[in-house]
Amino acid sequence: MDWDQTNGFTTQTFNLEKDYEGEVTATLISRKAKKNTSKAMLYIHGFVDYFFQRHLADWVNNAGYNFYALDLRKHGRSILSHQKPNMTRSLTDYFEEIDMAFDVIRNADSNDFVVLIGHSTGGLTSCLYLNSRNDKADALILNSPFFDFNKPPWYRKTIVPMVALLGKVFPGLPSPEGLDEGNSLSVHKDFEGEWDFDLNLKPHSGFKIDFGWISAIYYGQKALHRGLDVKCPVLLMYSDNSVKPGKFTKEMHLADAVLNVKDIKRHASKPGKNVTSVEIEGGRHDLILSLKKVRGRVFTVMTDFITKVEKNEV
Fold first, then answer.
1. Residue 83: CB partners within 8 Å, gap ≥ 6?
2. What is the mean pLDDT of the segment spanning 69-90?
3. What is the pLDDT of the chain when averaged over all its residues?
4. DSSP conformation class of 48
5. Which of 5, 61, 142, 307 is 20 to 30 A from residue 117's alpha carbon, by CA?
6. Residue 245 pLDDT > 70
7. SS3 state at 12
8. Is 50 exposed, middle or buried (0-12, 13-18, 19+ CB in 10 A)?
9. Residue 40 to residue 23: CA distance in whole angstroms
10. Which candidate, 238, 210, 76, 74, places its Cα nearest to that of 148?
11. 309 and 138 in contact (C-beta within 8 Å)?
C-alpha cells in the first residue's frame, strides 16, 4: 500500500499454514521510534477492520516505543482473492500470526518490553492469546473489547448458542446478521467523521458473515466468561455510554454504536486478577477514533498506565 510507505511504515508478509480455503497470509506493519529503544507496542484490530490509525502509531513512537500492528489473516492488507474476508472458525487460528509477530518483535528486533493493544474482537482474541501464552507481553491494553454479543439476554441465552452449534457443523452457512453502517459513517471523513480508511477493506456495512464466525466468537466469549488468567497488568477501557446500532445519528459521535458497554463492565474482571478499568466519557466504539478531546483523554490514560507498568506500580 502506498499509504504505508508515505507514512514511514514497513510491512512484512507472514505465510501461514493453509486452511480450508487454501493459502493464508498475515501482515506485520511496523515503524521504529526515532531514538533506539527496546520497548514496543503491538496493535491488533477488530472485526471488519485493519490498521489505518496513524495517530496511534505517532503516539506510540512519541512515547519512545517501536510500533507494530498486525493485519490478521483475511483482514485488510492480508485479504486474498479466494477468501471470504474477515472470516474465521476459531479465534485461536489467529495465534499463529500473533506468535510470528512476537517472534519478530522480541527476537529479530530485540525488544524486551512489549505492550499488546487489542480493539474489539482483537481485544477478545488478545485476552485468549495471553491466557495461553502468558510470557509474551508485559502489559495488555483493551480498547472496547468484544466480550459479549450486543443482544437482549434472552437472545444470547437461546438463539446465539443454537447458531454457534450450527456453525460448528455448517460453518459456511450464511447468516442474516451483519454490521450496521452507522458507526462507520460516523468516523469516515467522506461522510460524518474525520478519518480516512479504505472502504474496500473496511466497508460501512461490513462483509457477509457466516455461522462459523458466530461460533468462533461465541466459544471465545464463553472461555472469557468462565474467567481467564492473564498474568500481566491489564488496562480495560470503554465508553461511558452506548447507542443502539443502526443508521447514523449524531449521538454516535459520543457513544459506542457497536457494543453495549454494560456487557464490557459486567465481564471486566474476567481477563485476569490485575485489571484496571477506565470509563471514557463520550468515547466511540474505537476509542482512539473518538472526537479530539475524548481521544486525548484515551492517550493520557494509556500513557499513565504504561508508565506505572514500567515502574512496577500496577
1. 21, 24, 74
2. 98
3. 97
4. S
5. 5
6. yes
7. strand
8. buried
9. 30
10. 238
11. yes
The three grid cell numbers given for residue 174, joined into one nine-digit string: 450464511
Supply 5's cell numbers: 510507505
For residue 140, what are the CA distances in angstroms to 18, 68, 118, 243, 249?
29, 14, 8, 27, 32
Residues 293, 295, 298, 299: is their CA dihedral positive or negative?
A: negative
Share of the chain above pLDDT 70, in %: 100
Residues in the chain, total: 314
Between the two ends of the chain, the Cα-to-Cα distance in Å is: 39
Annotate 57-78 with DSSP letters as a single string. HHHHHHTT-EEEEEE-TTSGGG
Residue 200 is given by DSSP the state T
Query: Quick one: which of 115, 136, 109, 139 has its CA closest to 36?
Result: 109
- For residue 29, give the H/E element and its range: strand 22-31
Q: What letter represents residue 11's amino acid?
A: T
Euclidean distance between CA atoms 121 and 125, whole angstroms: 6
Burial class (CB in 10 A: 0-12, 13-18, 19+), 84: middle
Q: Convert the pLDDT of each residue in 207-229 to its tens digit.
A: 999 999 999 999 999 999 999 99
CA 133 – CA 140 distance, rounded (Å) = 13
- The three-class DSSP label of residue 21 is coil
Dihedrals phi, psi of 275, to nearest 5 degrees: -115, 125
Sole residue written with cell 490485575: 274
What pLDDT score does 179 carry? 84
Q: Does residue 247 come out as left (phi exceeding 0), alpha (psi in the -120 to 50 range) or beta?
A: beta
Nearest to 147 by CA among 222, 87, 234, 91: 222
Measured distance CA(229)–CA(77) in Å, rounded = 32
pLDDT digits (tens, 9 = 90+) for 276-301: 999 999 999 999 999 999 999 999 99
Residue type, 4: D
Q: Which cell numbers in the block locate residue 269?
A: 474482571
